[in-house]
Amino acid sequence: MLESITAFQGEELRQHYREYQMSTSKECIEVNYETVIGLEVHVELLTESKLFCRCGTRFGSPPNTQICPVCLGLPGVLPTVNRKAVEYLIRTGLALNCRIASLSKFDRKNYFYPDMPKNFQISQYDLPLALEGMLKITVNDGEKCVGIKRIHLEEDTGKSIHKGTIDASLYTLEDYNRAGVPLMEIVTEPDISTPEEASLFLQSLRTILQWIEVSDCRMEEGSLRCDANISIRLPGAELGTKVEVKNMNSFKSVRDALEYEEKRQRNMQNKSEPIIQETRGWDEQKSITIPMRSKETENDYRYFPEPDLLPLQIDDAWCEAVKSGLPELPGARKNRFINQYGLSCYDADCLTSQRFMSEFFEKSCTLHPSPKVICNWLMGDVARYLKDSSTSLEDSRLTPEGLAELCSLIDKGVISGKIGKTILEETAATGKSPEKLVREHGLFQISDEHELTAVIDEVIAEQPKAREDFMKGNEKTLGFLVGQVMKKTKGKANPEAVNRLLRERLTGR
Amino acid sequence: MLEKGEASSLEITEAFLDRLNRHNDTLKAFITITGDLACRQAREADARRKGKEQCSPLSGIPIALKDNICVKGVRCTCGSRILEQFHPPYNAGVTERLIRDGAVIAGKTNMDEFAMGSSTENSAFFTTKNPWDLTRVPGGSSGGSAAAVAASLIPCALGSDTGGSVRLPAAFCGITGLKPTYGLISRYGLVAYASSLDQIGILSRDVRDCAIILNTIAGHDKRDSTSAQISGTDYIKSIQAPVRDIRIGIPAEFFLESLDPSIAGVIESALEIFRSLGITTVPVSLPHIGYSLASYYIIAPAEASSNLARYDGTRYGYREAGHDDIVSMCRASRRHGFGAETKRRIMLGTYTLSAGYYDAYYLKAQKIRTLIRRDFERAFLQCDVIAAPTSPGTAFRIGENTDDPLKMYLADIFTVSLNLAGLPGLVIPCGSSEGLPVGLQFLGRAFGEETLLSIGHTFQRETSFHRERPPLFDGA
Predict the structure, then answer these.
(1) Which of A98, A152, A416, B106 is deepest in the core (most CB within 10 A)?
(2) A449-507 CATH
(3) Any CB–CB contact under 8 A between B446 and chain A?
(4) Does A310 lie at the interface with B, CB-CB under 8 angstroms?
(5) How confident is the model over A469-497, as a mean pLDDT?
(6) Tally of domains in chain B
(7) Which of B137-151, B152-166, B213-227, B323-337 has the lowest mean pLDDT?
(8) CA-to-CA distance for B52 and B372, rounded, in angstroms?
């Protein structure tokens, strides 16, 4: 039955499907719809100045303090292209396996909105700077390639502040600090099949963009924004009517909104109601998408080539220079970590989720060549410490030197692993070297047998019952006695030695 | 006089300001007269000259700017209600260069609104009169600049030329007008009408003055991406270059029956003068030139519709009061801030750029533009400059064409092709028809200003048409 349905297209398909549904209406059949998602991601570039003028781009400056005649679009001004922004886009294109267009141009996208000083946005229409790339993401059952259709450069708009909606508000305030900040738009192919994948894609994308230092990708500050196109279809059928979803301000809301929209569209289909091509906004509070505008009321942007800017010619030499300046990318580094350090896929994935973390790891490894130990520390106690003190590896005072020193102190038996954990916290908080801390607090491990034997004898004398139990064959009591020794030595006793010596004293061997 | 020390810049400036103030009510050439600024600059120029500083020949000379070229703090209306109170906070690239060389800025001249027009009748404020006949237009859109120079209210002025807006008024007013190659002069601070066609031009009494000003304003400006990486040419020197080997091309397409026979006659006798100097004329052909007007009236309005979108009453300029939401405020401000011709072109441009029409109009017009550029390239294989009339007729009467936009557009028929091709053009007075000046137009190769100026200068050395003054303004 399903196969015959796939032979139909569009409206015919829907009609046929309605009949199919009616014929089977009694038994509720779960129809396996496929979800098709494509993303449009806007990313603010980390350039110091704006795309077409020399104004600064710092986030959070007082309103209208980073403006000039050019980004205000005053009569008579002209744009000039920020070379750095083009370079960042090329860098991104190369990192996402794109082809860099040797000839590219800017176009005007015309529409009226008070936060756009010129009432047109300089963007790129039919000749984007980068195209035909892809990004590999790790999903549950392995890897998946998401195609990158194009990446283009454009200017950001200012920010409007209304009381309520633009039509109802008695006033509108405009802050043009953001107007003209370089923005790249990354458009994916409709290769994403679940809201989960969309979220994973965004995370991978963020990792790579932060990695190559083109954007800080802070969704909460708006330096990464995401719109999605989503539709459903029966397996193998033509693409369904797509709905554009906007106003998703976090990774979670991307997932939630798409899950909601997926469900909404399935319900519509199941009720045989048509899905309308429209733009819907995600309402975070109500957790629903609501219609914003239909296709009919969409703007005609009247694109045409920007006459004030010459076409961009990107020569191979420039591309090569950018390419050679690229760092090793997360995917490649992950594979290398697996091969070179014998890490598990999971560990390598985690360590390469941030460039800083991966470099921290490698640096630590060169100083203390036990990759697995370093990895365990980073993913265990270090991660826990960072989480508890709500800081990041970059912001903490922990250094690769510190971590390596800590590991080698444990390795050499100078301190116990347990003491190591306290030292770690103090090192990360104060930046003092572990060795110095051990010395300051007198935390050297006690391995001297005479010293230990004296403490052990003390403990045995204090705990006659435990001693008896052990002699009766209760092995567990040994652990208790070890604990007592550790307590007396404030954790400094070498646990291995204590174990051995205790057994010797108790059994008299 | 200045160089010899016979008069100070302040004396000269004050004399011009006096003349300007007396005659501007009649001529209506100026929108804003910057008397205080001019006197201050004149004093500074005098001080520099006294300090024996090396001075540009332009130092201390009064000049007027078309009212779409920004001068910091001086209102810049573009002949429009919507910018009536706009005071730019910055100087245009050319303004900076004029100030650097000590020129004295005496005022801002009248123009068709946003440079859209051929008569200054589209100015939101008033129509400038032709100094040769006050019932006639001075041509446009730089009509204020041309009339002011022709009536000796100012020695020289800047205009802008998008489809002939420097050359047509130069011809109608009997003065010299240069539209340089696109990219030779920075457009930074020139309020845009049609960005890919706009170019600042010069209106002066003769070719030599024109060269002096070009020396000051030509050259690269990194704020204008379309500005050419050319500098260091001495145009004053180049006007002296020998012209004997120059071949003048005569395109058949510019000398059809539709040309006023009396104008054709005047131009023919001017060409005869060149022949008598041993310069050869050769027939050339520009087969696609007939499409230039149509192509121009697609491209220019399209770009204008976008360039003028920023005037919405939000940030600066005219804002209509009494609206309680932003959408109706923007609409009303544009409805009442723009004049009829400007709105016509905005609508034309919006239409031709619309989805589904873009390919049929804008794209096709751009293709024609390429064909026209090739026509010129081919023609310039056979000749060094091309001679042509500037306009089908002499200055028309005020009101004569205002009801018929198409007839008005036809005034540009001999000038627009040059803007489409981005080439330079020079207009020099070459005689008159029924007491009204006739302009001879020379079209040159890209960055071929030197050849144009030398050929123009040669003609002016041999003739005295450029010395004729409109009788009404011949005295003090």
Answers:
(1) B106
(2) 1.10.10.410
(3) no
(4) yes
(5) 80
(6) 1
(7) B323-337
(8) 50
